[in-house]
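Predict structure. Chain length: 516.
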Amino acid sequence: MTAGRIFTGDELTKDLTLECDVCVVGSGSGGAWTAHELVKQGRSVVMLEEGGYHTRREFDMTEPRAYQHLYQELGNRATDDLSMTILQGKSVGGGTTVNWCSSFRTPERILKHWRERFGIETVSTGVLTPHWEQIERRLHVAEWPLESINANNKVLWDGLGALGYERGLIRRNVNNCLNLGYCGLGCPVDAKQSMLVTVIPDAVEQGLSLYANTAARVLDWDGRRVTAVRAEVLDPVSKKPTGVKVVVKPKVTVVSGGAINSPGLLMRSQLLSEGRVGERTWFHPVMIMMAEFEHEVNAFHGAPQSVYSHHFVDRGPGKMGFFLEVPPVQPMLAATVATGSGLDTLELMTKLKHLQVMLAIHVDGLLPDEEGGTVRLREGSQSRYSIKYAFTPAHWEAFRTACKEMAKLQFAAGAKMVRSLHLAPVTLKSAADLDRLDAAAWAPVQVRVATAHQMGGCAMGKDPSSSVVDPHLKYHTLDNLFVVDGSVLPTSLGVNPQETIFGLARWAAGHIGQAV
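Prediction complete.
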């Protein structure tokens, strides 16, 4: 067995043509596990990653550096109307390099919904459990101890307990974690068991060739087969094309660029699958409430996410559910997300040590009439995207309810003030003020909405007229093209998505290898 290599853009100075069994586009949750399993089968695998190769030696826990190198569009990706901010990873390891380590298996109720509505019987709890068990062992997934939760998470834990709501401790993929709290900026001690430090190096040792700073631009295809993947090399510093081209000629191609970039690659390649590519995109839209406490919370320190509640995840027919977690509160992230301006923002930032922030993550895609968002190529550009997402009355009802519930929890845990993230923030002094939220401006751009979970756009399903890939993740009309990432999810999940994608990828690699 010959070890592979990781190549970076500054090393790629002349055009290359490569032949291999499988080309995997993208190195995040889906691409990494797929490549790992395929090289274990003895397949020759070339992986292309648009982002750079960055390691703990560069992870200095500063936001300006992290957003510049580790996030799509420097952390500024958003919907066209700017109504929703989109945080999405972009480097070797993808979103796993910058996520907050929350690890949940796919809920049975979601898999049941997929079976009943979309006829998907290939993925079930029984099928995925053996894969999750192997994954969890490799990534050291374990419940975070109650005694180690930080003050930010403790507000959620205490509030849930005081109100009698369901609560739990999050399972996290970490090993020898130092509880620094800067997971979103890249782990400086390699404690986070991201793809960057686990299955990607494992796969490279077994022969994977990974080309970083190499953006797949188009798939050549003829009849029912992809014949080549055409990519261009990007300068690691400027992120601009250097003029060097890479052409990969694989027997099988796996697209794993995520729920925005994977549809984009298919669209650039004129693979539109009856117009469903880029349709039914789900975002887990996030509502945020910020609370001030007398004591220091220091929400920028300690494991970012360790407590959750699914108490409101299923609110009954016609209503959108949501689940509760907390984020870290580093200065740049806080200032970017906070609404208001000038002296108001300055005053808020002087209170950073005393601020606690709570998230309500909404489960989109489950209501009968939901269509979700769309991803399209931006006019005049082959590398930037037009992203649209229309909020419905069901969204606004859930958003308003979620903000009230979060404020109740924060006051129950001792907050002296709670503030909404409206353009004109609503400030609450006690739980008696909750009804003031009813009069707030519940409309696009009038209240901060964010997303860190992008799903859909290349949905799996039995019917080619309503999906992009089949229940085995093969593109409906091509024999050697698979999509393996969050874009194949036909709805959102109601949990953080990384472990669902890990499991799907490890499962799919079994039959992808047989297609070589």
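Summary: The first strand starts at residue 5 and ends at 7.
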